[in-house]
Amino acid sequence: MYQSQLFTKTRKEAPKDEVSKNAQLLIKAGYINKEMAGVYDYLPLGLRVLSNISNLIRREMNIVGGQEIALTALQDKTPWEKTNRWNDEVYDIWFKTKLKNGTELGLGTTHEEPLTSLLKNHIHSYKDLPIYPYQIQTKFRNETRAKSGIMRGREFLMKDMYSFSADQNSHDKFYEKMKKVYLRIFTQVGLGDKTYITFASGGTFSKYSHEFQTISEAGEDTIYICDKCKLAVNKELIKEQNTCPECGNEKLREEKGIEVGNIFNLGTKFSDALDLVYLNDKGEKQKVIMGCYGIGPSRLMGTIVESLADEKGLVWPTEIAPFKVHLIEIGDKPEVQKKREEIMAKLEKSGVEVLCDDRALRPGEKFADSDLLGLPLRIVISEKTLSSGDFEVKERMGGKVSLLKEAEMFDFVKKYK
């Protein structure tokens, strides 16, 4: 894609009322637009990143047997009343509205109730289990405050998976498997060395749940890390659980953390309330055991910015970058333009996505914009590179610059597919 055709432009300043680093940088780089506090538009570059994150998560969910669905955002209050979560005193983050006939509806914040109700039509026998449906869908939460950019939105993208198992043993095996899957996801997006499985309150569902917390000064949570086991405990539990749950280590390190994912044992809370049962091999009625597993792609995108960006701008891991290569054209000589077209065509034919800066700007402006946009590789084409035969290739993460012959340059780029 040619940058001259990209309708979004970089800007020198973020909105004065935007206090979060992630939103400031994403707005300056032209990835998102702020509609209001906690509500953001995703522009072409931002949507490409968000889609790449979603597709990465989608691949991992499919590998473990997930089946993708799309439930409605508009919610009938009936199943929510059965679990008492329609009550604002119990669950106070609803956006509620009414139809013209006066029927009260809500905008979905999560989907345990409607999905449990739906699966009553599909789960009858032990042979129907287990089932692992998931969706990647817009959620709505009436947050009291929304000052963390895309990390805490009132409208945001969420991947929520739900497990439906015949017994506790099969549920536990899947639950443990999902811990590893989540850690694999965070590693792929560049957060693996900063993200810890964290013991947290299970709320009304169980004694403990498990959060995935990424160390960051922008974090809203305080966690205590065991460096021996690479586990952590949320501050809300520290009086009850002031040692490592795994090894008993008392020397826990305090850090700020961003919650990038969570998993819950739901037990039979929802199958009890909504009467989700199946017949076992003896023909006896049994309650379905449930779990839920959440990651917010938009929240994860913001966390990546908070964790990896530097003083010059964004830094995207290869897996989720909007384009893999930023091709910078310096000068307007015909031979430079010809070589630009040739290299761009070769890269794209080999499966490498390219953003080409063909704009009539000074080199310094192009380089500053390139650093702000944060694509993994920058390749410069100029009269100088044509005469010397050496192409300047800069890796955005780490800033290493290499001078490579054309064949070497193409070999080097292959690892960024």
Q: If you had to describe this structure to a student in words, what would you say it looks like?
A:
The protein has 417 residues and is α+β, with helices and mostly antiparallel strands. It folds into 2 domains: 3-308, BirA Bifunctional Protein, domain 2 (2-Layer Sandwich); 325-416, Rossmann fold. It is 29% helix and 28% strand. The chain contains 11 helices and 21 strands. It has helices at 21-28, 44-63, 77-82, 112-119, 168-188, 269-274, 297-308, 334-349, 363-373, 383-388, 406-413, and strands spanning 32-36, 39-42, 67-68, 74-76, 95-98, 104-107, 133-140, 155-165, 195-201, 208-215, 221-226, 231-234, 253-267, 277-279, 285-287, 289-295, 325-329, 354-357, 377-381, 391-395, 401-404. The strands form 5 sheets. The protein has a 5-stranded mixed barrel. Strands 18-17-19-20-21 form a 5-stranded mixed beta sheet, sandwiched between helices. It is elongated and about 80 Å long. The two termini are 16 Å apart.
Mean pLDDT: 95
**Percent helix:** 25-40%
CATH H level of the largest domain: which superfamily?
A: Bira Bifunctional Protein, Domain 2
Morphology call: elongated
CATH topology of the largest domain: BirA Bifunctional Protein, domain 2
Low-confidence stretches: none
* Tally of discrete structural domains: 2
Question: How are strands sequenced across the largest beta sheet?
Answer: 9-10-13-11-12
- Architecture (CATH level 2) name of the largest domain: 2-Layer Sandwich
Query: In angstroms, what separates the terminal alpha carbons?
Result: 16 Å
Strand content of the residues, in percent? 25-35%
Provide the structure class. alpha+beta
- Report the biggest beta sheet as strand number plus sense, adding barrel if it closes: 5 strands, mixed, barrel
Give the number of helices.
11
CATH class of the largest domain: Alpha Beta
Give me the count of strands. Answer: 21
- Estimated radius of gyration: 24 Å
